[in-house]
Amino acid sequence: MMRHHGVYNRRSWPARKMAYACMAMVLALMNACSLMPGTKLERIALPAGFSITLYEDDVPGARTLAFGDNGTLFIGTYKQGKVYAIPVRSGRKGEVRVIARDLQDPHGVAFRDGSLYVAERSRILRFDDIEKHLDQPMPPVVIYDLGLKYAHHGLRVMHFGPDGKLYVSIGVPCNICMPEADRYGVIIRMDRNGGGAEVFARGIRNSVGYDWHPETHELWFTDNGRDLLGNDTPPDELNHAPVMGLHFGYPHCHAGELSDPVFGLRNPCSDFTAPAQKLGPHVAALGMRFYTGRQFPSPYRNRIFIAEHGSWNRSPKLGYRVSMVTLGDNDAVTYEPFAEGWLQGNSAWGRPVDVIVAPDGALLVSDDKRGAIYRISYTGP
User: Fold this and answer.
1) What is the DSSP letter of 270?
2) Do 338 and 305 contact (CB within 8 A), yes or no?
3) What does the buried/exposed string (b/e) look like for 271-292 if buried means 16 or more CB atoms within 10 Å of the residue's CB?
4) What is the per-residue DSSP string for 128-158?
5) Pairing mode, strands 115-119 and 108-112
6) pLDDT for 270-302, tens place per residue?
7) 349 with 327: CB under 8 angstroms?
8) Which domains does the chain have, with CATH numbers?
């Protein structure tokens, strides 16, 4: 019996080993499926009447968003070095095109008059007549060389303003330092061909999102607060720049009232423009847009939606959500979560990066952690 038992064990071991391997594969598959964006969207809390669905999940590293004239959605990335395009949806998935690759952090995307503008770390490219050549884009034209080499805060964000000029944000190459004047820590603007570049706003640590009020046409932008001053200081900022030439405090003053322990001795906070709204500390407030669609109820018109990428050096973690700022008489009145649930406990399964109003009035949200785009719509009470 013992010999038979021993022979049985030897003969069955390969089978048991295969069974264990199959079980491991099944468990891994189950775990992978549980992390797929679409299977966790029920965890996203939204105001009554709103719903969230998966728009696309085949956009690794999805960051900034821009729509073309014909409804093509363009998506910039970071480490992936790619720029994606999703044509107008026809009800099918798998339509993502890679229209550029092997670029240096092609983060910022903007569209104007048939051309796609892409901001690398040091250059701004223009892809002409892009929506007619998604399968084989024409070679890009370099319209501006920023001449920047630092990777720290090296992701550019780019939008066309109501004045027709192209705005580009340039973060500082550090956590806290005295950056080279008018070269870092600024938002610049230029003509669409790259000429006439000038500084529009200064004293900005790292802005990764901005938009213009639909009625006043004044600039609003997010800014990330400095690190290593504690869990709760300083807060991120929502700033308002109604005119050119304002200074928002970095590196001397943070959030309008906190003098920097090193650089704050040179200039008091009263010398600078304070934020319109203090945001959560270290929430990494990135992309922002005014809601200009007509799908959401009318009270949501002209509210600001902000993608909060989430804290990396705070305990407990904070952010990982889409927040909303309501304005009254052009001043911030309330700041509150709009969509949250990407953070579960102290573990995040997704990280919002940018928001954009779709042609149908829905709000699209990019998530670089999951490589996904979500669609938030209003379905009624």
Assistant:
1) G
2) yes
3) ebbbbbbbbbbbbbbbbbbbbe
4) TTGGG-SSSPPPPEEEEE------TT----E
5) antiparallel
6) 999 999 999 999 999 999 999 999 999 999 999
7) no
8) 38-378 (2.120.10.30)
CB-based burial label for 195 (10 Å; 0-12, 13-18, 19+)? exposed
Q: Token pair of 239, please? A: 């700033």
**Which residues have a Cβ under 8 Å from the Cβ of 307 and sit 6 or more positions away?**
209, 285, 286, 287, 288, 322, 352, 353, 354, 355, 365, 366
Non-local (6+) Cβ contacts of 315 within 8 A are 231, 346
Q: Give the position of tokens 């992390």.
A: 35
Read off the pLDDT of residues 88-142 as tens digits, 9 standing for 90 and up: 864 455 589 999 999 999 999 999 999 999 999 999 999 999 999 999 999 999 9
How many angstroms separate the CA atoms of 267 and 94, rounded? 54
Q: CA-CA distance, 282 to 178, in Å (whole number)?
A: 21
